[in-house]
């Protein structure tokens, strides 16, 4: 069977699709993997046939743009990038279908244009969402625009929803449909729903323990469980990090994933201050050595990178921005969590972690050393939070998201 996979984004968007690709290859299928050229090494390390998209796009420079992780500007920034990439996505999909004749296409729901061509040429599409909010279900326990936990947070999101829908109809839909028309496709009445939920099957690549199925979910949906991949097979913890972990009690781990880390601002300085207030050891994952603060206390260590699957289980608390990849790995680790949401789906993911009793929230735009330390203290050495985290991690042990996704993709083909 021939399967084409299309995805874009950061490592949090790429890794689940690499996990599914590896599973499909292991089953004897031929897989062609289409992603931004920046991720060629990741695909090659996994033994996956790679086809670059946007070869001239400087992903690292893009990720250094502070607007990308801005809580108000970030959404438009991402949409503009996706919109500008549609013509190439259309061309790449048409080229893939005409050249390799795939039996099925697996696509991230933000690869606008892929589904258009596949439907036109009669190739079935398994559309994959990584974050639960993207199924746009008003019956979800956490609403699409919800940024704060509790009844007030849900109420505020409900109030915002009609306004945001009106803004989408005014600003997004005409521009989107104009490009569809110019590319030879008919306009859509509700492009957001079609793009996010319009696959021949719709796969939710998250755990049903994070967000179960609800009435009102898109048609033909399946929640598969998380699909795991983080390069741990090729990147063990460094001797320096291993030595630090063995030298004392479990540290607080501070990270910003692989995208937000490039526009960290004073995040790591605030992390050091908060850990000092709590008198705790800390590990800072800074993305690059030059991003690390100059004067790091003796009871802390800064390293550019470590696989989350190896480091997170050895932390006292894991602190991250709430991207879905970091969220999944922190839930898998069985340790309490503090989420510092910046933009996009991160607020929604943070509310889910809070509601599970596993973590607390420290919004980035309000972050101070005192508030940061207080948010960490809520879950640090907290038996209830630790118990909830341990239980959730045990539930994940029985899930095999990449395998379940592959089952559905095979049935579709």
Could you please describe the fold and organization of this structure?
The chain has 16 helices and 13 strands. A 7-stranded parallel sheet has the order 3-2-1-4-5-6-7, with helices on both faces. α1 packs across α16, α5 (86-100) runs parallel beside α6 (114-121) and α10 (267-277) packs across α14 (369-379). 44% of the residues lie in helices and 13% in strands. It is α/β, with parallel strands linked by helices and 413 residues long. α2 links the parallel β2 (30-36) and β3 (49-53).
Query: What is the mean pLDDT?
Result: 93
> In terms of quaternary structure, what is this?
single chain
State the helical fraction: 40-55%
The spatial strand order of the largest sheet comes to 3-2-1-4-5-6-7
Structural class: alpha/beta
Q: Quick one: overall form?
A: globular
| Annotation, overall tally of beta strands | 13
- Compute the gyration radius: what is it? 21 Å
* Main sheet record: 7 strands, parallel
Q: Briefly, what is this?
A:
The chain is built from 16 helices and 13 strands.
Task: Write out key terms for the chains shown.
single chain; 413 residues; alpha/beta; seven-stranded parallel β-sheet; six-stranded parallel β-sheet; 16 helices; 13 strands; globular
């Amino acid at each position: 069977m021939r399967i084409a996979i299309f995805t874009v984004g950061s490592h949090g968007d790429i890794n689940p699709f690499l996990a599914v690709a590896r599973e499909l290859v292991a089953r004897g299928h031929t897989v062609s993997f289409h992603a931004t050229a920046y991720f060629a090494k990741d695909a090659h390390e996994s033994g996956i046939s790679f086809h670059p998209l946007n070869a001239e796009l400087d992903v690292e420079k893009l990720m250094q743009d502070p607007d990308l992780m801005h809580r108000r500007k970030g959404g438009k920034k991402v949409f503009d990038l996706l919109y500008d990439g549609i013509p190439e996505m259309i061309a790449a999909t048409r080229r893939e279908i005409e050249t390799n004749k795939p039996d099925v296409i697996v696509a991230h729901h933000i690869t606008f244009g892929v589904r258009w061509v596949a439907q036109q040429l009669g190739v079935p599409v398994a559309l994959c969402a990584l974050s639960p909010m993207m199924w746009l279900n008003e019956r979800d326990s956490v609403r699409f625009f919800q940024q704060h936990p509790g009844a007030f947070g849900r109420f505020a999101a409900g109030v915002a929803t009609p306004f945001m829908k009106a803004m989408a109809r005014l600003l997004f839909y005409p521009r989107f449909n104009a490009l569809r028309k110019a590319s030879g496709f008919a306009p859509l009445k509700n492009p957001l729903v079609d793009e996010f939920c319009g696959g021949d099957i719709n796969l939710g690549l998250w755990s049903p323990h994070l967000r179960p199925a609800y009435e009102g979910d898109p048609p033909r949906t399946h929640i598969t469980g998380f699909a795991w991949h983080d390069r741990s097979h090729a990147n063990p913890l460094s001797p320096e990090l291993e030595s630090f972990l063995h030298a004392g009690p479990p540290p607080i781990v501070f990270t910003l994933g692989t995208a937000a880390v490039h526009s960290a601002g004073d995040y790591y300085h605030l992390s050091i201050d908060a850990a000092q207030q709590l008198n705790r050891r800390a590990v800072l994952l800074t993305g690059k050595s030059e991003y690390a603060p100059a004067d790091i206390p003796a009871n802390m260590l800064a390293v550019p990178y470590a696989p989350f699957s190896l480091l997170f289980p050895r932390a006292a608390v894991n602190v991250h921005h709430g991207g879905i990849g970091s969220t999944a790995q922190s839930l898998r680790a069985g340790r309490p969590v503090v989420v510092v949401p910046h933009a996009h789906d991160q607020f929604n993911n943070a509310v889910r972690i809070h509601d599970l009793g596993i973590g607390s929230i420290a919004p980035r735009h309000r972050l101070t050393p005192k508030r940061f330390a207080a948010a960490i203290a809520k879950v640090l050495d907290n038996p209830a939070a630790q118990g909830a985290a341990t239980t959730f991690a045990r539930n994940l042990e029985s899930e095999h998201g990449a395998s379940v996704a592959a089952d559905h993709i095979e049935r579709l083909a």
